[in-house]
Amino acid sequence: MTGLRYVYAVCRPLGAPLQAQLTGIGGAPPALLSHRGLIAVVSTVPEADFCEEGLKAHLEDLDWLAATARAHQGVIDALTTVTTPLPLRLATVFRDDSGVRSMMEARETDFLHALDRLEGRVEWGVKVFTEPPPEPATDERAGTAATGEKPDKPMSGRDYLRRRRADTRAHEADLQAAEAFADALHQRLDAHAEASRLHPPQNASLSGARGRNVLNAAYLVPRNHSEEFVELVDRTKDEAGGLRVELTGPWAAYSFSGFAEEDARHGASAGEGR
């Protein structure tokens, strides 16, 4: 079966070996490909799966995509424990090692500059969610369904509309308060980070997260200051009221390397460098 070279990340030569049992896409162990002071972390993947036609077919297979993304992330996570990796876009593949080396040579200056800038730094993600509102009462008569009391008379149409307007105003006020908290939290965390990125709010129907996402941010933090950053986030949870603050990381600096986004703009996947 013909294989392609899958590239997970580019980094400097490792100061410590990767985990002996580490596997990547399809269970293949990652290998290190050296070129001019840089290392590409690669493995061999089936061409049938990662050629342009194969990837198009797999876009409909959510289980395959999820497994591929987990394997990709697993290699990046392992690299992050021993070095500063520059993650490349999911499904970045080349015909052979020569194609990988050509890419590394063409982008050598940019890679080295990014590695200098990100050395010793990690990314932390912080999200803030509103808690979903309680389920509406099934009995629309004077709001007594929750108490079990029997109303004297049914709610009129005018009273019902008035109640709906009041509920809407309360929801809007709660959302404004949540957004104000998220903005203040971002400003506080940004002051303790070297850089930050505000990402679009997550779509609940896609992420499966409860509530509305009012902050979805990434922060670049020196690894040796991470403990203080985590403690700062933990303290803000006590001030969040009915909001939910989620912290993830430490990650490789996906949001700050520029290479995953650059690859996406230029379509650097599905057999580039053939």
TrEMBL record:
The keyword Mitochondrion does not apply. One of its GO terms (biological process) is gas vesicle organization. Keywords: Gas vesicle. Residues 129-159 are annotated as: Disordered. It is found in: Gas vesicle. InterPro entries: GvpL/GvpF (IPR009430). Coiled coil: none annotated. GO terms for cellular component: gas vesicle. Belongs to the gas vesicle GvpF/GvpL family. Residues 149-159 have a biased composition (Basic and acidic residues). This is Gas vesicle protein.
